[in-house]
């Protein structure tokens, strides 16, 4: 795949990455819609602002994707391609590293004047819907994208571990912005899911911005006393 991409012109690469990002967004939103429909939950229609912002976020994410590919071509990002058990190790390392890094960035934004300028845009709706995963101020989208590329540059992650992480990133994002909790309390409190970022976990952040800054887990919120059940 990477060899194929390397043979393409810059314009074709941008088009491929744009289609990729739009397709991922469409699949994620469709999955969120299906979950809400199966749960027979009322679905608030997306506003024109949400739709336009979602498109803008995809354009910025396309630029970030291209920057990552360019970084790999020029040796700034180095990936392993072996298929072995290290894939799991690299995935867990990337998963926890990004969870901590995004927790720190997310918490910092809420403590500064930047919140009023940038992040409050994402908190316009106290009860989000799946599309709100992509409703971010452009500067915030670029900040998270830069954090992502910086993390990849720190360590030679396995390429397949990166793909697994990116897939789960969308899954957690959609779940966190369902606006309702599809899982029963008994299952959420089970040992398997207790420390993961469920829909309720992130929904509580939207209703009370002083708590639950984590993305994939509640680990850092529990450690730094910002957790709210």
Mind explaining what this structure looks like?
The chain is mostly helical. The chain has one domain (2-223). Helix content is 62%, strand content 0%. The longest helix has 29 residues, at 10-38. It is globular, with a radius of gyration of 18 Å. Its main location: membrane.
Uncertain runs: none
Distance between the termini: 43 Å
Percentage of helical residues? 55-70%
Q: What is the total number of structural domains?
A: 1
Can you describe this structure in just a few lines?
It contains 10 helices and no strands.
Search tags:
62% helix; globular; 0% strand; 10 helices; Fatty_acid_hydroxylase; membrane; 229 residues; mainly alpha; Sterol_Desaturase_Related; transmembrane; oxidoreductase activity
Fold blueprint:
Blueprint: H1 2-6, H2 10-38, H3 48-73, H4 86-111, H5 114-117, H6 138-154, H7 159-176, H8 185-188, H9 199-207, H10 219-223
């Amino acid at each position: 795949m990477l060899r194929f991409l390397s043979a393409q012109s810059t314009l074709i690469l941008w088009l491929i990455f744009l289609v990729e990002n739009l397709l991922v967004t469409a699949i994620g939103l469709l999955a969120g819609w299906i979950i809400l429909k199966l749960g027979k939950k009322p679905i608030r229609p997306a506003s024109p602002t949400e739709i336009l912002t979602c498109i803008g976020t995809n354009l910025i994410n396309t630029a970030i994707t291209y920057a990552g590919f360019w970084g790999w071509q020029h040796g700034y990002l180095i990936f392993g391609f072996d298929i072995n058990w290290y894939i799991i190790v690299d995935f867990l390392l990337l998963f926890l590293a990004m969870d901590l890094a995004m927790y720190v960035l997310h918490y910092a934004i809420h403590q500064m004047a930047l919140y009023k300028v940038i992040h409050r845009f994402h908190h316009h709706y106290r009860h989000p819907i799946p599309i709100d995963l992509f409703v971010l101020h452009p500067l915030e989208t670029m900040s998270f994208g830069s954090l992502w590329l910086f993390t990849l540059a720190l360590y030679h992650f396995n390429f397949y571990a990166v793909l697994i992480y990116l897939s789960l990133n969308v899954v957690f994002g959609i779940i966190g912005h369902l606006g309702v909790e599809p899982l029963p309390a008994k299952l959420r409190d089970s040992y398997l899911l207790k420390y993961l970022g469920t829909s309720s976990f992130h929904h509580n952040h939207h209703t009370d911005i002083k708590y639950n800054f984590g993305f994939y887990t509640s680990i850092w919120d529990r450690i730094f006393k910002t957790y709210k059940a």
